[in-house]
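Appendix B. Raw example, untouched.
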Amino acid sequence: MSETKPTYTIQNVVASASLFVKVPLEKVAKKLTNTEYNPEQFPGLVIRLEQPKISALIFSSGRIVVTGAKSKAMVEEAVEEIKKELKKVEIETTKKPEIEIQNVVASGDIGMKLNLNKLAFQLETSEYEPEQFPGLVYKVPKSHITFLLFGTGRIVCTGAKTKKEVKDEVEKLVKTLKKFVK
């Protein structure tokens, strides 16, 4: 078996933050064109930014959830842009937002073909129902990390909080899989 180093790319960083200010969502929705607000369907307002290209949910409590970022720095930039957008509607934030990374999603390739049928029996915390979904879902024991594994060697890692955690968990996954893949 040829040794290829696993490769992966961060696809999405989901973070939450508090602006420490109440946000009148209806007022924001009326004045900003890059928003969607339908309180009958969902209690938050969706705002889409072009730079950086992210989406965020803003709640009347001042909590926000940012999605679509590729790094923590991009999340921080997005929060600053959201503050600028809110300033246009005379909503001032005085306290520095507390940003917390909720989930880092990465996709990549571990460089080995996988027999998902066999792995489903060998990996205790896995689920594989090919008629439902073509990938094997592997919940890493004693962890909050979940991998989607595909026969081609492609992977998706979800549940990490940092880029380093993704790297460490992918390395552990490869070690684990090498025990079963000959």
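End of appendix B.
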